[in-house]
Amino acid sequence: MRILLFEVNPFSPPVIPISLGYLAAFLIKYGFKVKIINLSQKSGYSVKGLENLIKDFSPQLVGFSTYQRNILYVLLVL
Does this entry carry the keyword Membrane (predicted)? Predict the structure, then answer.
């Protein structure tokens, strides 16, 4: 199964939060294919580039790292 995880954080440079790192490591250990995408002001993804990445990876499950500080931004992506 292919799983795509998003970190939406316009407030800081693009870094992978440790929580998503742990989740991805666990999933990979059990045979899942995982990609983590960080969406921030400096992540460099265009809308078309992001669309192509999602189409190429063709995830079966998508997750968002959501907190009170970024919930409105996550809702904009959905």
Answer: yes
**Domain holding 73: CATH number?**
3.40.50
Closest-CA residue to 23 (of 53, 54, 65, 58): 65
Provide the number of structural domains found in the chain: 1
pLDDT band at 6 (very low <50, low <70, confident <90, very high): very high
Domain that holds residue 50: 2-77
Distance separating alpha carbons of residues 73 and 58, to the nearest angstrom: 23
C-alpha of 56 from chain center = 15
Average pLDDT, the chain: 89
Q: Which residue has the tokens 């009170």?
A: 68
